[in-house]
Design a protein that fits this description.
Layout (H helix, E strand, L loop, with lengths): L2 H12 L14 E2 L7 E9 L4 H10 L5 E4 L10 H12 L3 E4 L12 H19 L1 E3 L1 E2 L8 H9 L3 E3 L3 E2 L8 H14 L3 E7 L3 H17 L3 E3 L1 H4 L5 E4 L9 H12 L14 E2 L7 E9 L4 H10 L5 E4 L10 H12 L3 E4 L12 H19 L1 E3 L1 E2 L8 H9 L3 E3 L3 E2 L8 H14 L3 E7 L3 H17 L3 E3 L1 H5 L4 E4 L12
Parallel strand pairs: 1-7, 2-3, 2-9, 2-10, 3-4, 6-7, 8-9, 12-18, 13-14, 13-20, 13-21, 14-15, 17-18, 19-20
Antiparallel strand pairs: 5-11, 16-22
The chain binds zinc ion (2 copies).
Amino acid sequence: MFASLFVTVALALFGCVSAAPQKRALAQVYSKCTVANTVALTFDDGPYVWLYDISKALIAAGGKGTFFFNGNNYGCIYDDANIKRVKYAYDKGHQVASHTWGHKDLTTLTWDQIHDEMWRVELALQRICGVQPAFMRPPFGNYNNLVREASSVRGQSLAIWDFDSGDSLGVSAQESKNRYDTVVRQRPSNILALNHETIVTTSQQVIPYAIQKLQAAGYRLVTLAECLGQQPYQWVGTPQTKDMFASLLVTAALALFGSVGAAPQKRAPAQVYRKCTVANTVALTFDDGPHAWLYDISDALSAAGAQGTFFFNGNNFGCIYDDVNVQRIKHAYDNGHQVASHTWSHKDLTTLSSAQIHDEMERVELALQRICGVQPAFMRPPLGNYNNLVLEVSGARGQDVAIWDFDSGDSLGASAQESINRYDEVASQHPSSILALNHETIASTSEQVVPYAIQRLQQAGYRLVTLAECLGQQPYQWVGEPQTRDSNWTC
Ligand SMILES: [Zn+2]
Ligand SMILES: [Zn+2]
């Protein structure tokens, strides 16, 4: 379904009980360079065999180019030959960017499908080069507002062009050269030039000629980012090797691979919250669902005028896309509780690579986008375990990390009475606020502990609010519209 057309209707139907609706921003679209006397030569549809010749011609002339890679167009980006090509381009200081996964016309796709086309090639560039690209060129140059919204959510600007060599339109090498001659005669302040690395005459004839002509006309041949005065990447981290666990080898990998293509930008790590900040609030949080006891917990909270926070897994006690689980999550969200990420499959994130952490986070975020139409702003790492890599990845994804300062003990084998005693104890100590860990997967939590805790905490003068409210923050990075089920809703 095309989100932009249905925002108003969906908002009216589902409401956004937990947050003021935030309109999704539109990504910037660049069709021209902005820096005088620059030319950005860009090359689409690779990685392909002619990449080496193009790179060599550019480097020999002291220039740089920009490669917009597909994930699976002329070949799979994970083939050894293609990994080498992508690495080679990056290590030579050219800019690497996304041309999306399968070279589909993005204007024919749904919100989910656009994200999928973008995410998969971003993950490949994270793995191969250790970078998150800041630019995406939509195949055929086609985009609409939905594409711009998805790109904005992903932190990517759209790159079009103001000069086309025509090489993908079937023009001869001579005609492409003539086009370069014509634009050089016109001598615009700068040029953003479209070429294709998949065309042999482009690499063997047109580009060597164009480099010479453009430099003779006084242009500097720079990356797209440089011709726009911008950064090429959202962050620069660590490249992976196939099946390598980056977190164990970060230092070695940085030493081995370096970050040749750009000044390393430190990712802003996520905030870690262990305590609420608003006085007289309690955030009751519930991990490991969606599960059968969600309804009882949600209804007990609602009956008391209270709200809670559910940290959902994608595939832990069951698949998040099962009908019963979709209904549970919708029930929680529609009743004003906060929904948040507990990652996909409840792995210890400190044992995973950067790409694996992204995968664990991306999949449950996508599920919450589909089911509730929201992008969560909070993630609770399974077991409460995190390291610097987890904080970097979470920061890159715009998510803060939520721990707790009170544990009911329900997942540690505490009896219902013991959990009740723990709530009694903390209520009588009366701290300014409480961030409480519970699990919706435990029957006695829903049937005995939560009803008791609600009453006890309210009697002690606390307001029972969402995690976001107890921190004075927004629960979601954005609020859009829920989707309807399609064949992609699988675990
Ligand atoms: Zn293309
Ligand atoms: Zn858990």
